[in-house]
Design a protein that fits this description.
The protein is α/β, with parallel strands linked by helices. It folds into 3 domains: about 180 residues, FAD/NAD(P)-binding domain (3-Layer(bba) Sandwich), CATH 3.50.50.60; about 130 residues, 3-Layer(bba) Sandwich (FAD/NAD(P)-binding domain); about 80 residues, Enolase-like, domain 1. The chain contains 12 helices and 26 strands.
């Protein structure tokens, strides 16, 4: 069977596996090839810093499909297969072993990589970055032997690993350059809630600090030296300072790249037969009217369905509102919507912040941009509807738990 019937997916990730599934569900009967660098079949990443890291989820639960699924659906899953180049004109890719595979349509689900800390000692043993299943395994092992851990970066990965370390009985110090955790994502009003959460669970939070060096004893890390000269002793160091989209292949192939691979609302790149989905895709969002790149699970689950349909010639767009979640200690949270850093003028709280049972809404000119429910459940749909409606709401009613969220959608636009 030639390349005219081959649909090729580069990146055996959650997005890649879901794309292969979508192609088969949409009735595509041609050849589907799924290439992955790792030796693990496609798996989901949230458990790596949540349930699996905590030990509450078994290893088998992280995989997207059971092993037999790929053969049963005639999907050629090739692991340990690194793609080194894409030739859009010839419609083929080159692998590290020199072999080539032709394609009719190509989907890039190459994901992202952790940013490396550019300081001396960052490559010492017992310095951990969390992205792959093997990384989570190594961090779990570190928790079993370490008595104290330093976490560099108070983003989602940093805070979730800090919570897992505390659950394992390990002393934790979190080091963050900003004034509060998650400050760019949540803003000052809500960031403080996460700072208090970790302080209440015994985490030593150090804000406004800069890491100068990771110190070592032989080949192993034994602490973190800060720019002010102070030193944090640690048996292991976890670095979570963001991720970078894996755009190297796309860039070398001449595709448009700007904070990820730029794609239209149907996830098509600047080449008509190449698409991108998941972490690596900077997609035009019809509702927001701008390109956004979302580094969360929901995109990796849902975008591939649109990509698969678009590859088959269907008229589709990806217009889902961004969604993500976290679990830390006894706090569970879901976030729906999208807010640029500093892109709001008001935060409205509905419920009780003191018991961490509330919904926070970010507004601009009276319109809900995003909502985050904390230990309040079954409200994602109305929160999403408030976001997508684009309607102005009354802030007092939004804060009033006696007024159903669905009621706000029935009011005339801007009514008080």
């Amino acid at each position: 069977m030639g390349s005219e019937a081959t649909y090729l997916i580069v990146g055996a990730s959650l997005a890649g596996a879901k794309a292969a599934q979508a192609l088969r569900e949409e009735g595509f009967e041609g050849r589907v090839v799924l290439l992955g660098e790792e030796d693990e079949r496609p798996y989901e990443r949230p458990p790596l810093s949540k349930g699996y890291l905590l030990g509450s989820d078994e290893r088998d639960t992280v995989y997207v499909h059971p092993p037999q699924w790929y053969a049963e659906h005639d999907v050629e899953l090739r692991l340990g297969a690194t793609v080194t180049a894409i030739d859009p004109a010839a419609h083929e890719v080159t692998l590290a072993d020199g072999s080539r595979i032709g394609y009719a349509k190509l989907l890039l689900t190459t994901g992202s990589s952790p940013r490396r800390l550019p300081v001396p000692g960052a490559d010492l043993d017992s310095v951990h970055y969390l992205r792959r299943l093997a990384d989570s395994d190594r961090i779990k092992e570190a928790f079993e032997s370490a008595s104290r851990v330093a976490v560099i970066g108070a983003g989602w990965i940093g805070l979730e690993t800090a919570a897992a370390a505390r659950a394992a009985g390990v002393e934790v110090t979190v080091l963050e350059r900003a004034e509060l955790p998650l400050l760019r994502v949540l803003g000052r009003e809500v960031s403080q809630i996460f700072a208090d959460l970790h302080t209440d669970h015994g985490v030593d939070l150090r804000f406004g600090v800069q890491v100068a060096e990771i110190t070592g004893n032989g080949s192993r890390a034994d602490g973190v030296l800060l720019a002010d000269g102070s030193r944090i002793a640690a048996d292991a160091v976890i670095v979570g300072v963001g991720i970078t989209p894996n755009t190297q292949l796309a860039d070398a192939a001449g595709l448009d790249v700007d904070n990820g691979i730029r794609v239209d609302a149907d996830l098509r790149t600047s080449h008509p037969d190449i698409y991108a989905a998941g972490d690596v895709a900077n997609a035009l969002h019809p509702l927001l009217g701008k390109h956004i790149r979302v580094e969360h699970w929901a995109n990796a689950v849902n975008q591939p369905q649109v990509a698969g349909k678009a590859m088959l010639g269907q008229d589709v767009t990806y217009d889902r509102v961004p969604y993500f979640f976290t679990d830390q200690y006894d706090l569970g949270m879901e976030y729906t919507g999208y807010v640029e850093p500093g892109g709001y003028d008001q935060v409205v709280f509905r419920g009780r912040r003191d018991t961490r049972e509330f919904i926070a809404f970010w507004l601009a000119e009276g319109r809900v941009l995003a909502g985050m429910n904390v230990n309040v459940w079954d409200v994602t749909d109305p929160v999403r509807d408030l976001v997508t409606s684009g309607r102005a709401v009354d802030a007092k009613e939004l804060a009033d738990t006696g007024v159903p969220l669905t009621h706000l959608l029935k009011r005339p636009d801007g009514a008080g």
